[in-house]
Give the backbone structure.
Amino acid sequence: MNRGAISKRCTCTELVDGRRRQLGARCPRLRRADGSWNPRHGWWGFTLTVPGPGGKPRQLRHWKWDTRQDAEAALDSARTGYRNGASRIGLQLGTYLAEWITARTDLADTSHRNYSGHIRNHLTPRLGHLKLDDLRVAHVAEAFADIPVSDSTRQRIRATLGAR
């Protein structure tokens, strides 16, 4: 595992060969004229290389913090978690989702109730037995084909699975 890196980026786009491309860290609005960071544009985040399935390295990337200090604290937390063996390798999706929804105390009551229902009624029965390492798009697609709900509800369930 490496030390990780902190950086800043945004979602501004430019048109290249008829296609929209994100500027990311190249956005000129990220810095002020004097070279200091613009606090009102972009997000801070980190990249950390961690051991993945089979020992193959994989990148953890998270971009959601308003300040560099918050991103550094999150990177330190991620580093400590992987050093202490808190990685999610070998963990089943059902167990992970149960831990995740319990830990989410920052959600509004209705969001928490909806997420819990999606996990209890749809995700855990169909995908809960799979290990996180083994979960693939094909598994999710097959499980979602069996869910007898409207397309909008299916999209909400998919959003629950992708929430952090």
Summary: The first strand starts at residue 5 and ends at 16. The chain has a mean pLDDT of 88.
